[in-house]
Structure formats: structure tokens, C-alpha cells
Amino acid sequence: MKVSFVVRGRYSLARCGQPLRAVCSVFTLMLVLMPSVGWADEEAVLEQCDAPKGTIAVSAPQPHVVMELSRYNLPPPTSLLRQYIQNSNCFQVVERGRAMRNIQQERGLAESGMLQQDSNMGGGQMVTADFVMTPDVIFKDGNAGGAGVGAAVGSLFGGIGSLVGAVAGGVKFQEAQTTLTMADTRSTLQVAAASGTYKKADWAFGGVLGAIGGGAYTSTDEGKIVAAALLDNYNNIVRDVRSNPSLLESTSAVAQQNAAASLQAVSHRPGAVLSAKLDNVKVLDEPDRGAEVVSKLKKGEEVVFMGDAEDGYLYVQGSEAEGWVQEFMLDG
Fold it and tell me: If you average pLDDT over residues 37-58, what whole number do you get?
């Protein structure tokens, strides 16, 4: 009548006395079918960096993702990602979320003179976000008999079975897949992208969330699955960035080559009326700084852009002369 269980890796093997062998066989099968009560071989870890590689803002996911998360009483994962990033020491997190409204309110009070003097709050103090990270989450629904399995165990094992059944049938989805994209705010280049996947509950993951705090993402199995997928996802981003630092470069050699080979972009349409910013603006016979001066414009004197542009010079025609003028010397 004796029942004992030996835990080995992810599954449990039952050793039973003869009278309960059939019941134990069913229970052992249930343990194999229920990864939510499995034991992880390894503790989940958060990848680390020796020093921050820049500043980063975390963007909220698209509205349909937020709505889907709310079905499981989960908030947008932005706060969770911020915790991962902060504790990984790979980036410094800048506030661009809900708290930004309170920051702007405080700055508004300073501008209106409502705050104490010498509070040293004003323009030019906020740190620029070098990168923006955007998450996405996809669920794989778990309505494939889990609740029925739990009910069967419950009927076999009474009160203990009810607990096991709740674990087997309570998780509303079996797997979460996430993607994270990271873009450079200056060049708008996507510098890194990775995906993460996590299947129904590796309980050893709780140590990571317990260390940093995860709110709703630690209190439910669904939250733990999404949090673990995002952790796997973020770790992949960190590994990519560490192994290939050039990903974080704010310029693209390919883009620069393409720009040089493309038609010169101009800010004005042919026929636009422009005016000199200063007195003695030089009109040259060639689009070159050392070219011969054919005329000079007075401040405010108007000219017409003829449509040709080269190396930062515009070909213009005025009432007395025509030629090339440096674009930044003209308004209009």
C-alpha cells in the first residue's frame, strides 16, 4: 500500500506497491503529460553586460497585443522588460512611459514659476534614448484536453487530485512566442531583432522573477510563461549585441554608399523664391567655394531657384545676376 516518487530531471517516475500499481501508472502518465508540474534541469538566467552600451526606451506593444494580454489579466510587458534591461546592465533605461506625463507636469510647474527657486530644472537636461525596444507576443492556445486530463486525475485521487487537476487544466495557453526589435533613434536603423519561446511552466524560472519582481507576471502561470519567453527573447538580443558590437553603430556604410550614388536631394522646388540671409552673399560661377564671384546679394534680396543643385549649392537667378549660391545662406 506504499507509494513513493523519485524526481529525476523533468519527469517523475513512480514506484508503487502491487495493490496500487494501476493507479500509480495513471498518475505517472499524468506527470509526464503535465509539464507544468515538471522540475527544470537548469535555473533560468538573465544575460549580463560588463557596462551599458547606450540608453534605451521601451515602447508599448501594439493595441491588439495589449488587448490579448488583458484577457489573461496581464498588463503590457513594458515594466517587466525595463526590469530585465536594468538588471542586465546592458543599457540604461530612460523614461518614456506613463511616468513621462508626471515628469512633464513637474517641468511645467518649473516653467510657470510654481517651484522653489534654484531647483535647477530646465531645458537641455533630459537624456536622449539611443535605442527603442518594441515587444510583440503571440499565444499558442492550450485548449487541447488539459482540463479534461485534470478532471480525470481529480476523480482518481480526490483532494490531492483536485490540486493536480487545477495545475493541469488551469493554464489557459501552453506556449508564448515573443519578438523584440531594437531600433536606433538617430538613424532609424533596426539594429537587433530576436524571438523567444517558452512552453508551459518551468518552475525554476521563478527564481529569476523573484529576484527582480515581476508583478502580475509572477502571480499566474500565464504570466510566468510570457515572462519566460520575453526573458529568452531579451537574452538572445544581448548575446547578439555582445558578439557583434557593430550592430549598435548609428550609421550604415551601405546607406552612405547609396546616398552618394543617388540623385542629390534638395529642399526647394524649381521656381521657389529665396532670399539672402546676410549682406554680401556671394553668387559664384561654379558650385565651388573657390570659384569666381559674379555678384553679391544684399540681405533680404530675392532670387529664384532654377532647379539645379550640386554639393550644397543652388543655381539661382536674381534681378542683376545668376549663378551658384550656398544653400545654407538662403531662406525660403
Answer: 76
- Residue 162 is predicted with a pLDDT of 35
Is the pTM for the entire model greater than 0.85?
no
- Does 205 lie in the same domain as 142? yes
pLDDT of residue 209: 55
Torsion angle (degrees, nearest 10) of CA 209, 214, 217, 220 = 70
Q: Are residues 151 and 57 part of one domain?
A: yes
More confident call, 98 vs 231: 231
17 domain-assigned: yes
- Count of CA atoms in the C-beta half-sphere (13 A) of 305: 22
| Cα(134)–Cα(181) distance, integer angstroms | 5
Parallel, antiparallel, or unpaired for β 3-8 and 11-16? antiparallel
**157 vs 24: CA distance, rounded Å:** 10
150 and 98 in contact (C-beta within 8 Å)? no
Residue 22 shares a structural domain with residue 55:
no
Residues of the chain above pLDDT 70, percent: 67
Q: Which domain range does residue 185 map to? A: 42-115+124-248
Q: Domain check: are 273 and 307 in the same one?
A: yes
Q: Which of 34, 42, 41 is nearest to 8 (CA)?
A: 41
Say yes or no: 315 and 178 in one domain: no
